[in-house]
């Protein structure tokens, strides 16, 4: 029996307003960033009709235009054109859409409002507020691809492979911007440099580090797509189970034509769980008050797990947790999708620093000492960090299923379990917190029940929908999204019953 499908009135109202705005005003083939057509040379991503990328590439080159990349995963071309070419592209029947090859930036690494970081690294409350650790669970054998600014290797990391999409020269891992190291530390740090005060959520994972961001923390969208494509097409050889994308760009078009979104959707279809930061645009830049519709692309990817931030106030208990103003709220621009899917700790988190990197030098007051008094860590905030925490939990869930002798849960099942077990915050609406705050212990309990052979609905009925964190026993939200509809109740619709791929 299926539960009644209900769309909250606030979501429906905002959906109507947003969908009626820019979506109807924009010409069908061009994203908003290409209107009006720019002068001079512009980097674009051209989506072609199926099988016609080669023909469009040939025409562009015949007209003296350079094609920097033709993608194998999508019918997509990255090219340099001039504004006058847009008319020809609009008239071409084999061109589906044209998007700006936008600059992508990170969704984290801000000071987060504290005047200074502590001089030494106090014991972290992060794992405890997630209901961790759970005996025997550390993410062993699970591969997490961190598509970011790289990694500064230190004693906290092992079992790392590195691919540099910003340079053709092969070399050792590095991180000149510093963001990727923060993200990787929250996922996989072993805590060796902090006497276990700051371990990652899943220190047993294999890190597949893909550097796409430069020393200023930016990249072209095409570079990020190239990394997603590489991870997807080489999933088996690389052992990639999860992709973490703590980055994004403003939404300029519907998800169905957004090349970055479509790359994420292709990765999910290939069986990879993709975790994306919602963005740090939850605050109205004029009033400073929280505002809506600030989610970045690819946080608008329907199949992605899009994560906003919470501030745990550095306590284990959940009762004082809030969603900070910076965390991007939904719905998504153009499509009015109900995002984020959930929220997770992201404020004042201490993680490994890339010493000498741009971020490290930019925030000296956020530097934190580790073993021996050396300033090895940074105390930072952002939805980038929330996504990293969630990726670590996803790795634990996959490990839990494997330990039970089951196949890997599908990305859809992972997402629905995270939604169902999330712990709602009393003072936040659905477009602010999604289904609630990340509940690692609950998610692992439910995925274990599914992995032992129960159908998701039966597993949900068999497991007590509560988790004890600190001294509090908290009830799960018990909602999932079916399509773009929120579903409530004890009987849950689970993704077409496709529990495993």
What characteristics describe this protein?
15 helices, single chain, 501 residues, disordered N terminus, Alpha-Beta Plaits, 2 domains, disordered C terminus, globular
Number of helices: 15
Radius of gyration: 22 Å
For the termini, the CA-CA separation is 23 Å
Would you give the CATH topology of the largest domain? Answer: Rossmann fold
- Determine and state the CATH class of the largest domain: Alpha Beta
Q: Which architecture of the largest domain would the CATH scheme give at its second level?
A: 3-Layer(aba) Sandwich
Going by helix content, strand content and strand pairing, the class is alpha/beta
| Count of domains | 2
Helix percentage: 25-40%
How confident is the prediction overall: mean pLDDT?
89
The largest sheet has its strands arranged as: 8-9-7-11-13-14-15
Structural summary, described in words:
This protein has 501 residues and is an alpha/beta fold. The protein folds into two domains: 31-101, Alpha-Beta Plaits; 105-130 and 141-497, Rossmann fold (3-Layer(aba) Sandwich), CATH 3.40.50.200. Helix content is 27%, strand content 21%. It has 15 helices and 22 strands. The chain has helices spanning 9-19, 22-25, 53-62, 85-91, 126-129, 179-188, 221-233, 235-238, 259-269, 358-362, 383-403, 411-421, 430-433, 440-451, 456-462; strands at residues 5-6, 41-48, 66-71, 76-82, 95-100, 103-106, 143-148, 160-164, 206-211, 218-220, 242-245, 247-248, 273-277, 305-310, 342-345, 349-352, 367-369, 375-380, 466-469, 472-475, 479-482, 485-488. A seven-stranded parallel β-sheet has the order 8-9-7-11-13-14-15, with helices on both faces. A four-stranded antiparallel β-sheet has the order 3-4-2-5, with helices on both faces. A three-stranded antiparallel β-sheet has the order 1-22-21. A hairpin with a 2-residue loop joins strand 21 (479-482) and strand 22. Helix 6 (179-188) packs parallel to helix 11, helix 7 (221-233) runs parallel beside helix 9 (259-269) and helix 11 packs parallel to helix 14 (440-451). The radius of gyration is 22 Å and the shape is globular. The chain starts with a strand and ends in a 13-residue tail after the last strand. Residues 1-26 and 482-501 have low confidence and may be disordered.
